[in-house]
Structure formats: structure tokens, C-alpha cells
Design brief:
By secondary structure, the protein is α/β, with parallel strands linked by helices. 32% of the residues lie in helices and 25% in strands. The protein contains nine helices and eleven strands. The strands form three sheets. A six-stranded mixed β-sheet has the order 5-6-7-3-8-9, sandwiched between helices. The chain binds adenosine-5'-diphosphate (ADP) and magnesium ion (MG).
Length: 271
């Protein structure tokens, strides 16, 4: 086995006197699929921002594909948390996907342009977006926009794929399509996946390991090792029951623990 795609070593992140997490050690292997779970405010997005080089650590270190994180690191693909794209945006779907390519790498000459077009067309086809990729993205549905964002994240053939709640506001069919696409990529190209989500069940069949963050504490392990009543009760410091029904995992009790900590997110579901 080669070196880890993501190496997180004794990493800590603090804002003022608030510690989001500390002592975080995690190596993600090429092709591994890691789900990042935890209540709102537990620092999931902040972890992705650290890996993108947008947020410095308070302590420890991270490396991606053997290199320190940094803006424009072409080895990293990113699917940001979904926001609606301005309806007036003139950008076409293919333009959006093309933003995932580093211009310098392909050059600006005719051959570079042709190569770029081929790569973009391939990424568009891989998410099944051919029929709408030429339209302005502002006119597309949330699901269509999200598939194009996934294409943008994958077009540069990243070694690491960071996804921040990519299934939010997608219907079941599109959730499945996006998840299967990401799974295929990590199996065929060995892309390591860190997948932040509130909903473990849609991705559960694909998940190798879970990183569960709660209130500065965390656990890392297979879904079986982490998603059980004992471990989650310890993490939340309150009685939490985990039920398995028809291959799905349901968590009861963490909801009230979450509300005490974060009154302004009282309607949140966990996980
Ligand atoms: N640059 C920052 N300065 C101060 N606080 C921040 C900063 N970035 C994030 N936070 C705080 O860190 C906490 C975790 O945020 P986030 O990583 O977005 O959590 P999650 O994605 O798990 O909901 C939040 O309370 C947020 O307000
Ligand atoms: Mg977040």
C-alpha cells in the first residue's frame, strides 16, 4: 500500500477559547471513503477548510498527496456545501465544470483547448449532465447544479475529494446518482474521499470509516465501531440509542443532547 492520500497528525483547531477538535490523527488511504459526521458547529466544514489550505491549524499538521495544503492544489477536488446559484448567472454548465481545471496545466494553445474541451465533456457525461450542460447554470434545478459541481470537482482527476454535505436538497434518485459516481471514482481511480454529511444512511454501503465529531471529542472507526449506543453515548455524554433497521442506522437521543449545546439549531436531526 502506498502512502496515505490524507495525513492528519495531532491536529487541533481553536477559535478564541473554544476548541473545535484537538489531537486528531487520521490517515486516509487512496480509494478510502471516510464519512465525517457530527452536529452543526462541531467543526466538519472547518476540517475541510484546513485541508483546502483556507484555514490554518492551531496545532499539528496535515498533508494531502504528500504535500501541505494550499490554494489551487490540483490534487484536491472540492464539492462545497450547496447554495443556489444566482438565477442571472450567465455561466454555462460546461464553464462551471471547466473551472475545475487548472489553466496552466493544459496550456492556452489550440491543442490545450481541445484537450480541455474533451476533459470537460467527459466529466459532464460522467454525471449524466449532457442534456443541460450548455444552459446557464442559474436556470438549472438544484439537483442539476449539484451534479455539475461534482463534475467540476472530478474533472481535474483529484487524488483527494472533499465533499461538504453534497446530498443536501437532492431527491433520492439524485442522491444515489451522485453517491455512486463518487464511489466509482474512488474505486477506479483510487481517489480518497472525505464526505461530510448529516445523513449517513444514503452513503452507508460505501463508507469504510466514520469520523464522528461532537463537542471537541471525536471517534474514528468502521461504521460498526462508531455507530453504536455505547460509543455515541460516550461522545454525546448522554444516553443515545442506536437502532439498525433494514440495513439503516437510526440514532435516538442525540437530538436532545444537541439542542442543549446549540439552542439555535433545535430542529437539527442527528446524524
Ligand atoms: N474563522 C472563524 N472564526 C471564528 N469561529 C469560526 C471560524 N470558522 C468557523 N468558526 C466556528 O466554528 C464552529 C464550527 O463551524 P463549522 O466547521 O462550520 O461546523 P460544522 O460544519 O460542523 O457545522 C462554528 O461555531 C463556527 O462559528
Ligand atoms: Mg458545515
Amino acid at each position: 500500500m502506498g502512502e496515505a492520500a490524507v495525513e492528519i497528525e495531532d491536529a487541533g483547531l481553536r477559535f478564541g477559547d473554544r476548541t473545535l477538535w484537538s489531537g486528531l490523527d487520521l490517515d486516509v488511504a487512496p480509494g478510502e471513503f471516510v464519512a465525517v459526521l457530527g452536529p452543526n458547529g462541531s467543526g466538519k466544514t472547518s476540517l475541510l477548510r484546513v485541508l483546502l489550505g483556507l484555514q490554518p491549524l492551531s496545532s499539528g499538521s496535515v498533508r494531502l498527496a504528500g504535500e501541505p495544503p494550499g490554494r489551487g492544489n490540483q490534487k484536491v477536488g472540492y464539492v462545497p456545501q450547496q447554495r443556489a446559484i444566482d438565477e442571472s448567472a450567465a455561466l454555462r454548465g460546461t464553464d462551471l465544470v471547466g473551472l475545475g481545471l487548472d489553466g496552466h496545466r493544459w496550456g492556452v494553445g489550440l491543442r490545450g483547448m481541445a484537450r480541455r474541451r474533451r476533459l470537460v465533456a467527459g466529466a459532464v457525461a460522467s454525471v449524466g449532465a449532457q442534456s443541460y450542460a450548455r444552459f446557464p447554470v442559474g436556470r438549472l434545478s438544484g439537483g442539476e447544479q449539484q451534479r455539475l459541481r461534482v463534475a467540476q470537482a472530478l474533472v481535474g482527476e483529484p487524488e483527494v475529494l472533499l465533499c461538504d454535505e453534497p446530498l443536501l436538497s437532492l431527491d433520492i434518485a439524485h442522491q444515489r446518482a451522485v453517491t455512486e459516481l463518487i464511489d466509482t471514482r474512488r474505486r477506479t481511480a483510487g481517489t480518497a474521499v472525505l464526505f461530510v454529511t448529516h445523513e449517513l444512511n444514503p452513503i452507508l454501503p460505501y463508507v469504510d470509516r466514520v469520523l464522528y465529531l461532537v463537542n471537541g471529542r471525536f471517534r474514528i472507526g468502521t461504521p460498526d465501531e462508531v455507530m453504536n449506543s455505547h460509543v455515541l453515548s460516550e461522545l454525546y455524554s448522554t444516553r443515545v440509542e442506536v437502532f439498525r433497521v433494514g440495513g439503516q442506522i437510526h440514532v435516538a437521543g442525540a437530538h436532545s443532547a444537541l439542542c442543549e449545546d446549540l439552542p439555535h439549531h433545535a430542529d437539527e436531526q442527528v446524524p
